[in-house]
């Protein structure tokens, strides 16, 4: 009876995880999806706690309390802008747990592991270990603890691939000689080192893609753990995690018009000025009062949020500006680029926090045709996602990246602090166009001043 209950709880948990993932695919259902997945996790934990193999409930309760306290504190205090590095840290610990389970399985059963279980344990330890150190380096880069620029040297890719080759070689030999403990621990050590060397040459700005890829590795390591300890829910949840993380990495790369290999081996952050050719003329500074009047009397205004809105935490101020415009009968829309900000859904999350209705958020394909008939596009701390070079300059490193075509609006107002570049490090010819005006300052301050100007218009 108990076995049936445990298996049922695992089945229910798996269904809830799948429904949860489905819910997460749209902002409107994301919250419900998250709750379903949480409920699924509780179900899986309860099922696991009823297993016969539990040795000490005291240790489990102590771990639960400690983990929940740390998780709660992180949830409350870590700011939204630090979410990418917080996610990296979570992956590091998840992957370390998977790797340690593999080490303990090998320590306990070693030579007695058959080929199948040895392959599961080896896979788990290999992926778990490289994900642990890789995620820690990603965290350190994003947190500024190590330089965010790509750390490269001659022959780096060949060295890294050779190291990976040796590590995989150890794994293959272990499949036929599971008793070779020295090889097992060598593989463990090399996988830890490979994780560091894999991420060091990648620039901090590409870390979200790397984190999503490492998330996928951590998921696959968990699935392997499921095979190693014969746990169905781990196999299903790990595979879902692995698959969705990989798909997310591909989606992010597509939205940046890059390939996964270019992200992993291209040392992108070291590329700088190569496409300034089309950037000529002067940047025109906007007059606050005039912009206020133009927005107040517009038929439609489109806001284009970017990374600068996140750093300035300007989403609430932006909502107030939108309210002020709507009070005057202006139609307000928000244009959301899939890679605006520094993590997938970054803008959606921030705008949802400020209670911006989902119906006002428009994706690239839907809003681009509207720019030519829009009186004013207000770019709030975005840069690369509105860079017309991606469309007009075949020499640009970001050529082909889909952009929000704000330059086709009648007036473009760009809110940024100065002449800072975007993540790609490239010049943006938009800022020099005749229909573009720059409103310098921190985005939050600029929006607050703009709201006053609109109210006085
Ligand atoms: P961006 O190209 O990084 O540009 C952000 C701009 O915001 C900067 O030019 C900066 O100029 C301005 N800014 C910074 N702090 C500000 C503040 N407090 N107030 C006002 N302005 C501020 O941002 P984006 O247009 O959102 O593009 C995102 C980039 O990240 C893309 O290139 C994308 O490929 C990349 N990326 C995104 C993801 C993702 O998942 N979203 C993942 C990986 C990479 P000033 O310094 O002059 O103020």
Protein described:
The chain has 457 residues and is of the alpha/beta class. The chain has 3 domains: 1-77; 80-270, no CATH class; 273-456, TPP-binding domain (Rossmann fold). 59% of the residues lie in helices and 7% in strands. The chain is built from 17 helices and 6 strands. The chain has helices at 2-23, 27-49, 57-77, 83-109, 115-142, 156-176, 181-199, 207-228, 232-255, 260-265, 288-296, 307-312, 315-327, 346-353, 364-367, 389-392, 443-456, and strands at residues 300-305, 331-336, 361-363, 376-380, 411-416, 436-440. Strand 2 (331-336), helix 14 and strand 3 (361-363) form a beta-alpha-beta unit. Helix 4 packs parallel to helix 8. The radius of gyration is 25 Å and the shape is elongated. The model is unreliable at 271-277 (pLDDT under 50). NADP nicotinamide-adenine-dinucleotide phosphate binds at residues 205-206, 208-209, 252, 256, 306-308, 311-312, 339-344, 346, 381-385, 415-424, 442-443.
In terms of structural class, how would the helical and strand content be classed?
Answer: alpha/beta
Strand content: 5-15%
| Series of secondary-structure elements, N-terminal to C-terminal | HHHHHHHHHHHEHHEHEHEHEEH
Helix content: 55-70%
Number of helices: 17
Strand line-up across the major sheet: 3-2-1-4-5-6
What is the secondary structure topology, with strand pairs?
Elements: H1 2-23, H2 27-49, H3 57-77, H4 83-109, H5 115-142, H6 156-176, H7 181-199, H8 207-228, H9 232-255, H10 260-265, H11 288-296, E1 300-305, H12 307-312, H13 315-327, E2 331-336, H14 346-353, E3 361-363, H15 364-367, E4 376-380, H16 389-392, E5 411-416, E6 436-440, H17 443-456
The structure holds NADP nicotinamide-adenine-dinucleotide phosphate.
NADP nicotinamide-adenine-dinucleotide phosphate (NAP) binds next to α8, α12 and β5.
């Amino acid at each position: 009876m108990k076995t049936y209950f445990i298996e049922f709880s695992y089945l229910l948990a798996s269904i809830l995880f799948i429904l949860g993932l489905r819910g997460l695919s749209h902002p409107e259902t994301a919250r419900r999806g998250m709750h379903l997945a949480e409920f699924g996790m509780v179900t899986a934990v309860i099922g696991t706690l009823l297993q016969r193999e539990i040795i000490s409930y005291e240790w489990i309760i102590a771990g639960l309390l400690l983990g929940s306290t740390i998780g709660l504190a992180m949830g409350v205090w870590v700011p939204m802008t630090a979410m990418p590095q917080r996610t990296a840290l979570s992956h590091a610990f998840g992957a370390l747990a998977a790797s340690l389970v593999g080490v303990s399985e090998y320590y306990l059963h070693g030579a007695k592991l058959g080929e199948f279980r040895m392959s599961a344990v080896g896979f788990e330890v290999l992926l778990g270990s490289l994900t642990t150190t890789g995620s820690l380096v990603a965290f350190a880069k994003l947190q500024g603890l190590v330089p965010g620029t790509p750390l490269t040297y001659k022959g780096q890719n060949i060295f890294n691939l050779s190291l990976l080759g040796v590590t995989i070689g150890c794994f293959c030999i272990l499949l036929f000689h599971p008793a070779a403990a020295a090889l097992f621990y060598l593989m463990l050590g090399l996988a830890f080192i490979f994780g560091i060397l894999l991420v060091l040459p990648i620039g901090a700005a590409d870390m979200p893609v790397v984190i999503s890829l490492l998330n996928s590795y951590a998921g696959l390591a968990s699935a392997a753990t499921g095979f190693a300890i014969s746990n169905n829910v781990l196999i299903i949840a790990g595979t879902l995690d692995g698959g969705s993380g990989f798909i997310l990495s591909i989606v992010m790369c597509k939205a940046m018009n890059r390939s996964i290999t270019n992200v992993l081996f291209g040392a992108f952050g070291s590329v700088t000025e190569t496409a300034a050719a089309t950037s000529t003329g002067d940047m025109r500074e906007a007059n606050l009062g005039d912009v206020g009047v133009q927005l107040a009397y517009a038929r439609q205004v489109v806001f284009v949020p970017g990374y600068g809105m996140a750093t300035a935490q300007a989403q609430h101020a932006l909502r107030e500006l939108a309210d002020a415009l709507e009070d005057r009968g202006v139609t307000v829309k928000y244009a959301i680029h899939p890679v605006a900000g520094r993590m997938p859904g970054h803008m959606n999350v921030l705008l949802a926090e400020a209670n911006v209705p989902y119906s006002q958020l428009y994706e690239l394909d839907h809003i681009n045709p509207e720019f030519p008939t829009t009186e004013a596009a207000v770019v709030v701390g975005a840069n690369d996602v509105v860079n017309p070079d991606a469309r007009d300059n075949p020499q640009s490193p970001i050529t082909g990246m889909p952009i929000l075509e704000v330059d086709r609006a009648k007036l473009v107002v760009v809110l940024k602090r100065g002449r800072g570049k975007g993540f790609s490090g490239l010049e943006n010819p938009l800022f020099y166009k005749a229909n573009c005006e720059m409103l310098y300052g921190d985005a939050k301050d600029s929006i607050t001043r703009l709201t006053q100007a609109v109210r006085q218009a």
